[in-house]
Amino acid sequence: MNQPSAEPRTGPGRRKHSRGGMLVKAVIALVALGAIGAIVLAVSQTDRKHTDRADTFTVQVTSFDVLTTANGELQSRNKTDITSQLEIQSPIVEIVPEGKFVKKGDFLVRLNSEEIEKQLTEAENKVRLATNELAAAEADYAIQVSDNDSAMRAATLALELAELELRKWRQGDVVEKRLQLSQELERAEAEAGRLQRKVERSRKLFAKEFISSDEMEADERDAKEAIKKLEVARIAVQTYEEFTYHKEEKELTSKVEEARAEIERVKTKNASQLSSRLSDLEYKKANLRESEDERDRIKKQVESATIYAPTDGLVVYASSLDQEFMWDSRGPIAVGREVWPNETIIVLPDTSDMVAAIKVHESLIGKIKVGQRAHVKIDAAQGKTFEGTVDSIGILAESGGWRDPNLREYLVKISLNAADSVTALKPSMRCEGQIILDRVENALAVPIEAVFSEGAVTYVYTSTGAPAGRYIRVPVEIKRRSDTFAEVASGITEGARVLLREPNAGEVHNVADDAVARAVALAQANNRKPGGPGGAAPMDGAGERRGPGRRGADRAPVEGAAPAVTETEAEGGASIEAADSAAESKPADETDAAHPGTASPVAPALPAGSKTG
Question: Domain with 249 in it: what CATH number?
């Protein structure tokens, strides 16, 4: 077979044939490209229609709750801390498994009590010793009482005898003695007088010599002797009255006084001895009481080593609740772990009365009141939602800690109606609480995703209808809002379709010019003045999206929204269409430069399609 020549053929016929082939190939390529373009266009239109339907919402009249949502965890309203009542460190010998529901009186934990039992034995011995000592002290006290009575009787008798002796002397001895001395004195006086008279007669008789001198001298001697006896009798009376009487009186009186003093001494001595015995008795009683108290205390310590449930509840180890146990070298609660005095071992939360403790941002706490209804969703309970009411609001705000030191949140507790789920709910389960702040009834509403803002202006993107996929930015007045819906007071009507996302490039049909933006901002600013007709309600916990110039700026909810602005409200009577045409005629760079993203009541609007993050 002949091989074709490698050199190109030349000639007019050959070039004409080549041009015709190239033309055919070009036509085929164009047809193929057209077919591919048609397919791509059809697919893109189909996708665009599908996307348009998925990303838009038909404005309608509806009712919705104004909610605020916060996260937190479940807590039991009532809980019982089980602590070690032992006064010494003791290891755990036995403990009930964690997570078990127990009834009142069920066993919980047993601590080692060997050392305490030794102390109890010593305490019982001290009680027996103190009892014996008390018995001896009681006997000594009784003996002392008897001795005191005997001593007092003897002293009293001595006083009575002394007083009796004194009366006897005064009423008997003195009278008798005085009578005796008086009689002796009288006899001496009489005898002396008789003998004196006899001497006188004897002298007369001697003078007459009737008697002898001896007889006369004898009579004189007898007379002198009688005078001496008389003198003795007188001295005896004088001695008795001046000396003997007073001496005997003092002696007897002194005996009486001494007897009386002896009684006082006996009283004092008896009181002292009895007080000593009584003090010893009281000491022995107190010693016995202390010994018994110590024995009872140690006995109670032995009993406290075994702990039973004081109430019904769920067994939760303290180490599972307190993160500080992570740094405890003794480890978590378990058999063998040492427990300090008064250390919490188990917590028994009452799962029949649970509350949801959620943290609400301080900007919303003023709208939350005790008694407001709430919904609490608990993922761990198979995502079940429970009804509840706000039970309490924290007094002080809690800081966000080192992660967010500027964050301030209040702890709000919601009581749950979960009587039929006692065993399903447990403390520390994560939950999401929605508190119903208000109720919007039969109001025109749009999803919160459809609301955008730029400074004081709030707006939505509504569909133009034709061509499909084109939108126009429309200012609206927003009042109450929830996490999902916003109430529209004016600006759009029922049935309009609004975009639920940030518009893409080329989707915005009309762009308001600077005059329209200033008019809108001015109108909304006027309506937002206190008492103004367009004053809008605060935004209840729902953030709104802003233009690109506000990205990263403060995202706090705008407290009021401006009313919608009609086409004739543009400055100088210019229509929005005219303004949009003028805006579209400007280059993109000029439009962007002419509309910086500053949040000012009179700031020019951003280019259409801008949206907050």
Answer: 1.20.1270
